[in-house]
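Sanity check

After download, print the first record. It should look like this:
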Amino acid sequence: MSAPLPQVRGTYQFGAALKDLVWFRAGGVAEVLFRPADADDLAAFFAGKPAGVPITIIGVGSNLLVRDGGIPGVVIRLPAAFGKVEVDGLRVRAGAAALDSAVARKAADAGIAGFEFLRGVPGTIGGALRMNAGCYGSEVKDIFVEATAIDGQGKKHVLSAADMGFVYRKSGVPKDFVFVEAVFEGHGDEPAAVRTRMEELLARREITQPIGAKTGGSTFKNPPGAHAWKLIEDAGCRGLKIGDAMVSDVHCNFLINLGNATAAEIEALGEEVRRRVKETSGIDLEWEIKRVGVAGGES
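Expected structure tokens:
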């Protein structure tokens, strides 16, 4: 990196391997990996960073494919300090690095219903906010109250539901905003009843999804009026392989790394699935998994 980075209280790691930080267990390195100490440190970094330095935000990598050529510029990953979860009445305040499942369990213990679906959503609150994550008929927008984010100039923003612009698997927040925390609200119920519903959803997920596999979760968004998995199955893609990448035979909308798949193989498999679905149904599947970085050999 030609220009010096600003002094921070967090840490910089140069040439940081990312494959162990993403669920696919594939991909290249980060030119620089930055873990801020707190929200003020993150804001100071943005305010002082050199112009033109590319910034990429990652969480726990549950819905992310890092290409083999790695990610140029600075990759920001919020550490555990951003993972606090607090309850106040029927509201839950969660740091952006808090696991969705941890937030669901905290709400259940407090007798707050409405968060059960988060138990089945992999990843962190930051990613859930960015993509309006959901499953089994519920989405983040259903419990959302407000979120706090830092923009690319280091300014803090408190965002309402209208500001978020939630739609299916997407929010309308500018790409340079980094979420640091959010407030959600549910409704009261007996903790045991909430836990029971939550565990029922989790059991359903374990039966219908390739739990424990090296995967990035649901690969493609459901098109209007259709299910991606059904389109993929009808196109004959169940079990399809390219190298060590395979379409799951448990759930067709999951791509899995059988062991040593490259990011290029995983992405190529996804594109082949898209081609076959387009050929058989006329529908263009849209990637739900975020693909970042450059292909191997690019600079």
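If your output differs, re-run the checksum step. Summary of this record's structure: Residues 263-281 form the longest helix (19 residues).
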